[in-house]
Amino acid sequence: MGRDPPIVLSSDSEEGEPVEVEDVKGKVKEVEEDFKEPPKWLPDGWIMEVQRGEDGSFYQYYISPVSGVKLRMKAEVLSYLFSGMDDRFLESKKCAARNTLHSTHLWLPKGWFIEIRAGGENMDKMFKFYIYPPMEIRLFSKEDVLLYVKEMVVSACDTEGQCDTSSQDNILALVEFNPSVLLPEGWVKEIVYRKTKEGIRKDPYFTDPVNHYVFRTLKAAMTYLSTGKITNRSFIQKTSVHDLYNFDKCADLNEFLRKRLTNKTGNNDQTSDRYVKLGTPDNKILDPPLVVVCSFFRPPTSHVLQVRTCKLMS
């Protein structure tokens, strides 16, 4: 009997000659040999990843084991190492472990938020709810959330008529833990609600767990992580978000939070007693970041081959 003909793969989207499986396997094996060992200059613990794109080109990446940042060039890796970003990631994780608000909400499933509303007979109380926006679920306790996750049972939010949940008029804030894969563990995103002449305004704040620095955008937070520099719109909290919402179901409403319900001028918390502006003449003009970590080159696709290798820690 003769040798069976080779199996061929053809493209559904492009016309051309079919590719024999033996040729593909040969190229894969050749690449695996070429990238069997990471370069000697790559620090211990870093991961080298090789991906093959649709056009047949191979793309090489270097990944930090601490932050997960993915870089393409040796110069980018060296600049990253001198930026101190890994140190800030590790410090954030250590602070997260010691932070009461964060550590007491490790049970909260991914995608859930804390919702803070004003209530009470004289609007002098604040209430904490747990919401899951995709399903429009609002619950009032840890036990209710875990029951819903396990058995899909929605419990009533019984506040004995003390807190209205039918509108956005009394919402003070939404709080999200670990809001982005680009930020280390311990960071908190707070969306502040306040009344203005134009309606309800929503302002995002990203809070650093180490120094309680507050950044208005994810880009500003990433600039701080990658360079250690603070943008001129950043603030530091006198009353940290980690302390402010560290209560069980209900607590007394802080006076500066009450202003969010009555503010008609459009002012924000940056002029309140809760924040101290960090801007100084020295940091109003910032040098470009050493490393661009928010966007990096990606191949058109990487569905054919992915080779990973890692230098072991000595």
Automatic annotation (TrEMBL):
<dbReference type="Pfam" id="PF01429">
    <property type="entry name" value="MBD"/>
</dbReference>
<feature type="region of interest" description="Disordered">
    <location>
        <begin position="1"/>
        <end position="24"/>
    </location>
</feature>
<keyword id="KW-0804">Transcription</keyword>
<feature type="domain" description="MBD">
    <location>
        <begin position="32"/>
        <end position="102"/>
    </location>
</feature>
<keyword id="KW-0805">Transcription regulation</keyword>
<keyword id="KW-0238">DNA-binding</keyword>
<protein>
    <recommendedName>
        <fullName>MBD domain-containing protein</fullName>
    </recommendedName>
</protein>
<dbReference type="GO" id="GO:0005634">
    <property type="term" value="C:nucleus"/>
</dbReference>
<keyword id="KW-0539">Nucleus</keyword>
<dbReference type="InterPro" id="IPR001739">
    <property type="entry name" value="Methyl_CpG_DNA-bd"/>
</dbReference>
<dbReference type="GO" id="GO:0003677">
    <property type="term" value="F:DNA binding"/>
</dbReference>
<feature type="compositionally biased region" description="Acidic residues">
    <location>
        <begin position="12"/>
        <end position="21"/>
    </location>
</feature>
<dbReference type="InterPro" id="IPR038945">
    <property type="entry name" value="MBD13-like"/>
</dbReference>
<feature type="domain" description="MBD">
    <location>
        <begin position="173"/>
        <end position="254"/>
    </location>
</feature>
<dbReference type="InterPro" id="IPR016177">
    <property type="entry name" value="DNA-bd_dom_sf"/>
</dbReference>
